TrEMBL record:
Entry keyword Ribosomal protein: no
Gene Ontology biological-process entries: antibiotic biosynthetic process
Organism: Hypericibacter terrae
Residue numbers annotated as active site: S227
GO molecular function, one term: metal ion binding
Cofactor detail note: Binds 1 Ca(2+) ion per dimer.
Keywords attached to this entry: Calcium, Hydrolase, Metal-binding, Zymogen
Cofactor(s), names only, from the UniProt record: Ca(2+)
InterPro entries per UniProt: Ntn_hydrolases_N (IPR029055), Pen/GL7ACA/AHL_acylase (IPR014395), Penicillin_amidase_A-knob (IPR043147), Penicillin_amidase_dom1 (IPR023343), Penicillin_amidase_N_B-knob (IPR043146), S45 (IPR002692)
Protein name: Penicillin amidase
Length: 778
């Protein structure tokens, strides 16, 4: 058994990539060098761009083949073929959205230059499939299937897989509709204002989590993306040139979303975060421009209620009378089960989605259907071409022109060349004929009153160039300038993070460095704790329920705390547990089963309802179950007592030992094997981390497991810092490693660097190997 096990392990290791020597491959015009550094980060040097894209496809397949195949299957609705029945709900959603049909037509419409790049990339992926020797990566062996050849249109599926979780208004509308059936109108308006009040964006609270009334699709990201980016003008930097920083936040797993790479050709010089399956750099720089993204939270979706047309089977009502559905049958192959046939119906607003989720009862009447109107599904989207043009931009002006083709998802994009800095919320934002409930509830589709009349012109999107204070920053906050009139969205993330960025970069006399930018990215101060604790702690005075030794010690710790969510300190644990229990006591009785769909560290909402200007918001402090009318002071005291009791049971009776790092741990489970006992332990790389949901060093814990545990499930999967004075010295790190193969030394080797705020540069180092690809044949 030992010999067999050892032999099997050695055989599995043959799935690791070749990184030395030469390979003769068909499909390239000249030799290509692939240099890997000590972390497996490649630099690709080619005589022309098409050969470079070929090599990028080759190295992506070497290191991330299963992830590439999983992503294309996810977006195409083909996971059930290899995962079985557990993936059917996800596949049904993807088939209804029609991504697989869409990418084929989108590919055919690509400009010739970009289509040639996609073709070269696919040829590189397939060259790896045809030339590889030894075992397949472990995931293919575990699932007992082999990947199909890579089609050029498969590269467009990645964008759709990312676009869905970054466009979350439809889940907000579904959740608010469900809440409207459970709460009184005044309670709903207090919890979730339909019209944005004249308050700071922090007062609106965080958007609803992905765990919405539409159902839990476990194979999709756990919650919408969030991110930080900013850019400083050259006059504010030590180099005299602009500084740009970006850290996109997504759910954390292995492998991560991003793959570091540098590409050098006579006409192209790019470096940064690529996405396995895609032939360009998504986040990074070229020889002239650097850029970074955050999600705008723009409202580019609506749920339309549709009614079947009486006496006209297969039709629905429109302002012009009955209109037939556009239908197609989708055959979903399910492993070890019969095929399922799904009939997809589309309306003039979009596909009918109410047949595939749990939301219909919460949204529609029995004789109604729900259609998804989504700007991304409108014809003519050009986002893939925009990325190709961004990679080739010669200056800030041409980069900005490339963004004219950026459609979905709507993103806050900051950019800089040596002389200018800029920002634009780029993408398609619908213009509604009538704006009802600020687009936060489903609307009637049969009247035509809420139809879209087009999209906001690019000139009317929020944007800025070379501002007077030399700083542009976004963090999913409200980016609308004062007096902005067009409707962009009604809900944004709190302003905690963007306010902290501006605070740390406020000194107009200081000349900042790239190291300063990294320090800002790693900042662990909690603005929510700083805002709430001075109001909450005085309310504990004189409470008989808070006089135990542990309670007094915990209060003293919080009173002296510097608000940093550091892993070696107990105060973050006490504060996070307290906010969890306080939130439950404030909202859970009224929200019931919908609470877990609504609550995701909504500390700004806690602040507003308890301490905001509207006394009517204090209704949430009263427990509706008891006959007495409780005030906010009572609920603060009782929640703190329960917090100390819960933490004492979990960690012992010494608050000083309740360190954040004991419970705030990023599991970093494997994409597939985290669901398999034993293999989960073997392939996970848990990391003790700091931060919280509102800190710049994003460390969002899974609130559904609190207050007993605070696993870090959402954070910065990539960090990049760029000094336009020396772009070759740009600094990067990803959460994980370059390889998706658990047997690789580069599976998770960047995690300590990522955790500690370290970075690396991509400089063409070959300490990890030099592989030369040569044309096959004479």
């Amino acid at each position: 058994m030992l010999l067999a096990g050892g032999g099997g392990f050695l055989w599995l290791r043959t799935s690791l990539p070749q990184t030395e020597g030469e390979l003769a491959l068909p499909g390239i015009q000249g030799p290509v060098e692939i240099l890997r550094d000590s972390h497996g980060v490649p630099t690709i040097r080619a005589g022309n761009e098409l050969d470079a894209y070929f090599a990028l496809g080759f190295v992506h397949a070497q290191d991330r083949l299963f992830q590439m195949d999983f992503t294309r299957r996810l977006a195409a609705g083909r996971l059930s073929e290899v995962l079985g029945a557990r993936a059917i709900d996800t596949d049904r959603l993807m088939r209804v959205l029609g991504y697989n049909q869409r990418v084929k037509s989108d590919y055919a419409a690509l400009p010739a230059d970009f289509r040639a790049s996609v073709d070269a990339y696919a040829a590189g992926v397939n060259a790896y499939l045809d030339s590889r020797k030894g075992a397949w990566p472990p995931e293919f062996l575990a699932l007992r299937y082999r990947p199909e050849p890579w089609q050029p249109s498969d590269s467009l599926l990645w964008g759709w897989a990312m676009t869905l979780p970054l466009s979350s208004n439809w889940t907000d509308e579904a959740l608010r509709a469900a809440l409207a059936r459970q709460l009184s109108p005044s309670a709903l308006e207090s919890l979730w204002p339909s019209q944005p009040p004249a308050l700071r964006s922090a007062d609106l609270g965080s958007p609803a989590s992905w765990q919405s009334a539409l159902g839990d699709l476990s194979l999709l990201p756990a919650m919408p993306g969030a991110s930080n980016n900013w850019v400083l003008a050259g006059r504010r930097s030590a180099s005299g040139k602009p500084l740009l920083a970006n850290d996109p936040h997504l759910d954390l797993s292995l492998p991560g979303y991003w793959y570091l790479v540098r590409i050098e050709t006579p006409t192209l010089h790019v470096a940064g975060a690529s996405a396995p399956g895609v032939p360009f750099v998504i986040l990074g720089h070229n020889a002239h421009v650097a850029w970074g993204f955050t999600t705008t939270m723009a409202d580019n979706q609506d749920l339309f209620l549709e009614k079947p047309a009486p006496g006209a089977p297969g039709s629905y009502l429109t302002p012009d009378g009955p209109k037939p559905f556009v239908t197609r049958d989708e055959v979903i192959k399910v492993r070890n089960q019969p095929d399922q046939v799904l009939t997809v119906r589309e309306t003039r607003h979009g596909p009918i989605i109410s047949d595939i989720g749990r939301a219909k009862a919460a949204i529609a009447e029995p004789d109604e259907m729900v259609a998804l109107g989504w700007a991304c599904l409108a014809p003519g989207a050009q986002t893939p071409e925009a990325f190709w043009l961004m990679n080739h931009a010669a200056d800030a002006a041409s980069f900005r022109a490339a963004l004219d083709r950026f459609d979905c998802p709507v993103q806050n994009i900051v950019y800089a060349d040596q002389d200018h800095i800029g920002f634009i919320a780029a993408g398609r934002v619908p213009v509604r004929k009538t704006l009802e409930h600020f687009s936060q509830l489903p609307v009637e589709g049969w009247t035509g009153d809420h139809d879209w009349t087009g999209f906001l012109p690019r000139s009317e999107l929020p944007q800025s160039v070379d501002p007077a204070d030399g700083l542009l920053a976004t963090a999913n906050n409200d980016v609308r300038p004062p007096g902005y009139q067009p409707y962009l969205a009604a809900r944004f993330d709190s302003s905690y993070r963007v306010d902290r960025i501006r605070e740390l970069l406020s000194d107009p006399k200081r000349l900042f460095t790239p190291a300063d930018m990294t320090a800002v990215q790693m900042d662990m101060l909690s603005p929510a704790a700083r805002a709430l604790l001075p109001k909450l702690l005085p309310m504990l005075e004189g409470s008989a329920a808070n006089r135990s030794i542990a309670t007094i010690a915990a209060r003293n710790l919080l009173s002296d705390w510097d608000y940093r969510m550091a892993p070696d300190r107990p105060e973050p644990t006490i504060f996070s547990a307290w906010m969890t229990i306080l939130s439950q006591k404030l909202f859970k009785d009224e929200l019931g089963d919908l609470y877990s769909s609504w609550a995701w560290w909504n500390m700004a909402t806690i602040d507003r309802v308890m301490f905001g200007p509207d006394p009517a918001d204090r209704q949430w402090c009263d427990d509706p179950v008891t006959p007495a009318v409780e005030g906010c002071e009572e609920i603060v005291r009782s929640s703190f007592a329960e917090t100390i009791a819960a933490l004492t049971k979990r960690f012992g009776d010494k608050p000083a030992d309740w360190r954040w790092g004991r419970t705030h741990i990023a599991p970093f489970g494997h994409l597939l094997f985290r669901y398999v006992p034993i293999l989960s332990d073997l392939t996970s790389r848990p990391m003790v981390t700091g931060g919280a949901d509102d800190t710049l060093d994003r460390g969002s814990p899974d609130m559904r497991k609190a207050p007993n545990d605070f696993p870090h499930v959402h954070g910065a999967g990539f960090r990049g810092v760029y000094d336009l004075g020396d772009l070759d010295a740009a600094r990067f790190v990803i959460a994980g490693g370059q390889s998706g193969n658990p047997l690789s030394p580069h599976y998770g080797d960047l995690l300590p660097l990522w955790r500690d705020g370290g970075t690396l540069s991509i400089v063409g180092d070959d300490t990890g190997g030099r592989l030369t690809l040569k044309p096959a044949g004479p």
